[in-house]
């Protein structure tokens, strides 16, 4: 058994996991879990959404520091209890959340570009389109350009 007291490991769920016992932790694919205890044998203890429980270690992957973007100044919504240093956990969690947002927006941008190039541009050449559809096309281009600029 290995206690994880000095190192705060953050993992991301690769699959959904539904608890079957009271001491297990349920989560969905993509959820971020803070590991509190590493055990040999395939089960780890972690905290997610205010609950602590056991989960299979092969359902998650560690979020490496190289995957985390350099974080701007992080702000805390609530002040931590006195004598409890959460700055490392907050920065780690902030980085994971920010990375997740960037990955999601990047996928969204790819889907916008795909829709534009594979469907809307070919339809634009059709002479049967109403002005409403042309407006949708123009707005789609505008949104696509805006998302690309943000990323």
From TrEMBL:
GO molecular-function terms, A-Z: guanyl-nucleotide exchange factor activity
Any single biological process term in GO: lamellipodium assembly
Domain of life according to the entry: Eukaryota
Pfam families: SH3_2
The SH3 domain, residue ranges: 6-65
UniProt cross-references to SUPFAM superfamilies, sorted A to Z: DBL homology domain (DH-domain), SH3-domain
GO cellular component, one term: lamellipodium
Domain annotation DH: ranges: 93-151
Alphabetic keyword roster: SH3 domain
Key word RNA-binding present: no
SMART domains in the cross-refs: SH3
Official protein name in the record: Rho guanine nucleotide exchange factor 7
